Amino acid sequence: MAETMKTHGAGTLRAADAGSEVRLAGWVGRRRDHGGVVFVDLRDASGVVQVVLNPEDAPASEADLRGLRNEYCISVTGTVRLRPGDMANPDLPTGEVEVVGTSMTTLSAAEPLPFQIDDRVEVDEAKRLQYRYLDLRRPAMQDNVRARSQTIRAMRTVMDDLGFMEIETPTLIASTPEGARDMLVPSRLRKGTFYALPQSPQLFKQMLMIAGVERYYQVARCYRDEDMRADRQLEFTQLDFEGSFWGQEDVLATLEEIATRVTRDLRGVDLDRPFPRLTWHEAMERYGTDKPDIRFGMEIADLSPVFAETGFNAFAGVLASGGSIRGINAGGLGLSRSGLDGLSARAQELGAKGLVWIIAEEDGTFRSPVAKFLNDAELPGIASTLKAAPGDTLLIVADETRTALEVLGQIRLEIGQPDGHDELAYLFVVDFPVFERNEDGDFAPLHHPFTAPVDVRQMREDPGHAISKAYDLVLNGSELGSGSVRIHDPIVQAQVFETLGISDEEAERRFGWFLDALRFGTPPHAGFAIGVDRLVSILQNVPNIREVIPFPKTQSGGDPLTGSPSRVESKQLEELGIEVRAEVRAEWAADEAAGD
Ligand code: ASP
Question: Residue 486 CA: which ligand 1 atom is closest?
Fold first, then answer.
């Protein structure tokens, strides 16, 4: 399509364009004055090209030329020419050419900048978010935004090719039980009542299956009012999908298709299929987490058999109380005594009673603060179970089994995880337990309460050990998303609620509408949701998801650009029938007095 303001993207010009007349428009990146001749790095969404503005060619008034500043928005007409051989810049795709301007117009001026628009300049994140429109001009951020668009496009292409329909579901909904705190929106028309923003479109997509839509997907915005971490935001985007007459294998094959396509489009790499699979139990035993990073070994081994007869009281006590002794071979860490003690302190911080280190010395002996308590069979037993070579550091945690696994799993990551995300290790984790115990010791769904158990009878008789038809997709140690085969039988659904301690009345009150829907010929169905922000951030090799979200919130949930969340006019609150409590208003007054 012909554009009126430009003939070319600045970043698209190459040696083959030499001699062409071009019209460009963009921003002044860098500007250098060489004896009156002005060199401008002209940047637009396609990249950067050098423009030469020589006053002798009178491309603009003297004042305009001299007045050019960083980030002025300009338009340039000129001729592409090859840079003299030794002036070519091999670091720039357009580095072989430059544009000699015959006319330059300032389209709009820019105030002095709060920070330089340069990928190499480190800027405080709060400042970046406050001036996000400038931050997004940086080439790395442009690249992130483009990668996000490419990812979503690749996802849509796969889903469309596979015959899925994109269907929107409402964002003002009734609260649903997905484990997180709901974001609430007060209703003006029915004062005193609230909508919830969806934690995900879970129940709507299930109702679409009941509605006879056999293949659904949506690039869905989801909301969870949780404390934020590097890979969490209050609102985030999922590729959500669901299929009828479907089981786990159909979902996992679809996920492989999506991940392969996205990875090829973003990284130019073809993934091997099928992706590796671990059961939840294997993942916990070998890596101490349900989202293992399998780019490196350092797997956890069970050392309990080595200590079956131990005289070392600390270990014997743990075994007697039903715990276990687990270890990893951390390889040739070469840590000093204080470095090793630091690992023990870290293990305690993570919740273990302690951590024992053992160094396999070159001469076949072992050095460890506990060596004197261990017998002649135990040290070699540990070494052979952990396949120790001379110089290796062995780390052992004796504790309640789950604690030992989780602590070693975390330490494994902290000492072994490769930097960056050049290598991509996708993995499915399957066979999750149906329930976990929450802080009060009650059963809570590990995925969500609409997930089908493998064996309903077992779920009723021994809920603590019941396995579900839930699965996760993991990439480089990050959970990219979860899904499950759903319950399509209202009786089983009622039994799950019962096991969760939700009474019939409460179930009826909270999701009676959904239980009713299940009673009208529900097809077997299954689905999944992939976290788009997380996937793009890993593929883009950036440390947190805020880098790939155009307008994210800070860790404390604020937006420094627009000032949200913000107080509203009393009139708005009155219309909603809402009053801010006196103690909160007193806090506001105190903030105001403090000039906040
Ligand atoms: N709704 C689930 C989630 O957001 C995904 C699913 O089960 O499809 O995690």
Answer: 7
